[in-house]
């Protein structure tokens, strides 16, 4: 047992320099608590020594195509020269300065760009997607004086308390906290195709609770970590109409769907609607630094007045500078064509998996490809299969899925081959 574990204060020698490869894995087991994992972690993480383009190099020398875009954020790939230059250039001026009472060009430029992209003129910069959702909920509560939200089952909005309260309360990952989270109103999960019966039930639910609702909050078109479920954009139009009819705000969580992932710049563009409040994150900085934003209409901002929220690293100049460069890169690259090519490649490459006895469904939208199994998958076993094919994926629940970088190119075939091999290894229903 080391000094820290025994309660003794570490001496000066405890603060060591760089670690050798084997030391990283060993010390990781001893000190690091990873996301969605127990201590000790039953499946040790793989040590990454280098990331370039769409590939990760592990400490043992293996090279893997990253089919996850670093949790859906690294849309341009790794070590991009444009993004690298933006960071190093900003570093010459300042790495950070508090945003209370001060401002700076990178953050102001970013806010203007986001406002122009979305049609929502007021931008609150935050640290992470979960915080962006918390801010959106605060805006809604503060403006309306009400404290209930309506959402749909199957959703995921983050891991902080306000965000957890609008994630799926039964099948989501936060059921352990159900006794302490606020109870909101949940509609059924929206179907893939438009259904008049579902639309009627949704309208009735909103009407029944309208007097107590501050806002409706949904992920547009794609429900991400709640199960990679796709639904018809007509439901977004219906929710916009219902929100207007009953004087309820509409919050759209675009953290996973924003910046082209679904084939449109934003998920709500599939429905041609504008929300009252929008949450952005993940791909905002091209996967370089944590940054998120909550955008809203002029009416919401003026109605809220003083918003009592202030992240220490709000508007961080480094993050804002790389976000500006990433959005400019997105504007310049043919991302629509790239996403269409990825969609076509995923559709063709994953089609054989649909015939496997362990597979319930294969679905593709934009640069998102999903194999849903009948039963929960063995994460370690699936990862061993896909890594033998030179691919990195992170399955969860019943899903083996990919959200590759837009620059994946011919490596997409390797991803679909790996996923199809994983499908063959699934337990039959």
UniProtKB/TrEMBL annotation:
PROSITE patterns assigned to the protein according to its UniProt record, in alphabetical order: AA_TRANSFER_CLASS_3
Annotated region described as Disordered, given as residue ranges: 1-20
Compartment(s) where it occurs, according to its Swiss-Prot or TrEMBL record: Cytoplasm
Named cofactor requirement(s): pyridoxal 5'-phosphate
Gene3D superfamilies: Aspartate Aminotransferase, domain 1, Type I PLP-dependent aspartate aminotransferase-like (Major domain)
Residues where pyridoxal 5'-phosphate binds: 129-130, 253, 311-312
Residue numbers marked as site, Participates in the substrate recognition with KAPA and in a stacking interaction with the adenine ring of SAM: 36
Binding site for substrate: 71, 156, 282, 310, 394
InterPro entries: Aminotrans_3, Aminotrans_3_PPA_site, BioA, PyrdxlP-dep_Trfase, PyrdxlP-dep_Trfase_major, PyrdxlP-dep_Trfase_small
Residues the record lists as N6-(pyridoxal phosphate)lysine modifications: 282
Record-stated family: Belongs to the class-III pyridoxal-phosphate-dependent aminotransferase family. BioA subfamily.
PANTHER family from the UniProt entry: ADENOSYLMETHIONINE-8-AMINO-7-OXONONANOATE AMINOTRANSFERASE (PTHR42684:SF17)
Protein's recorded name: Adenosylmethionine-8-amino-7-oxononanoate aminotransferase
């Amino acid at each position: 047992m080391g000094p820290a574990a025994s309660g003794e204060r570490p001496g000066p020698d405890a603060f060591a320099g760089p670690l050798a490869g084997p030391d990283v894995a060993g010390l990781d087991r001893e000190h690091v608590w990873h996301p969605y994992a127990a201590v000790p972690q039953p499946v040790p993480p793989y040590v990454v020594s280098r990331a370039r383009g769409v590939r990760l190099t592990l400490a043992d020398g293996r090279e893997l195509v990253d089919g996850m875009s670093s949790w859906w954020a690294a849309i341009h790939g790794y070590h991009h020269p444009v993004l690298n230059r933006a960071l190093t250039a900003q570093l010459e001026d300042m790495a950070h300065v508090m945003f209370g009472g001060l401002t700076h060009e990178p953050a102001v430029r970013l806010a203007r760009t986001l406002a122009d992209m979305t049609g929502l003129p007021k931008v609150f910069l935050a640290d992470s997607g979960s915080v962006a959702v918390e801010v959106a909920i605060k805006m809604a509560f503060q403006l309306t004086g009400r404290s209930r939200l309506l959402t749909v089952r199957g959703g995921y909005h983050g891991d902080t308390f306000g965000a957890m309260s609008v994630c799926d309360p039964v099948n989501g990952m936060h059921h352990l906290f159900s006794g302490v989270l606020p109870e909101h109103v949940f509609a059924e999960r929206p179907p893939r195709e438009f259904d008049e019966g579902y639309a009627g039930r949704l309208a009735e639910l909103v009407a029944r609770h309208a007097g107590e609702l501050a806002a409706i909050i949904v992920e547009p078109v794609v429900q991400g970590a709640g199960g990679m479920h796709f639904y018809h954009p007509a439901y977004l139009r219906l929710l916009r109409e219902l929100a207007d009819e009953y004087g309820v705000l509409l919050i759209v969580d675009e953290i996973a769907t924003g910046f082209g992932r679904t084939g449109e710049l934003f998920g709500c563009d599939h429905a041609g609607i504008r929300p009252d409040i929008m949450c952005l994150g993940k791909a905002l900085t091209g996967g370089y630094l944590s940054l998120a934003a909550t955008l809203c209409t002029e009416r919401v901002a003026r109605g809220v007045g003083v918003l009592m929220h202030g992240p220490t690293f709000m508007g961080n100049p480094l993050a804002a500078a790389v976000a500006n460069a990433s959005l400019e890169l997105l504007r310049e690259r043919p991302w629509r064509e790239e996403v269409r090519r990825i969609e076509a490649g995923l559709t063709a490459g994953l089609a054989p998996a649909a015939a496997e006895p362990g597979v319930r469904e294969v679905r593709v939208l934009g640069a998102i490809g999903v194999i849903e199994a009948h039963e929960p998958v063995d994460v370690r076993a699936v990862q061993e299969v896909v890594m033998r094919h030179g691919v990195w994926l992170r399955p969860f629940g019943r899903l083996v899925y990919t959200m590759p970088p837009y620059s994946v190119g011919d490596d997409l075939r390797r991803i679909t081959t790996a996923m199809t091999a994983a499908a063959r290894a699934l337990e039959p229903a």
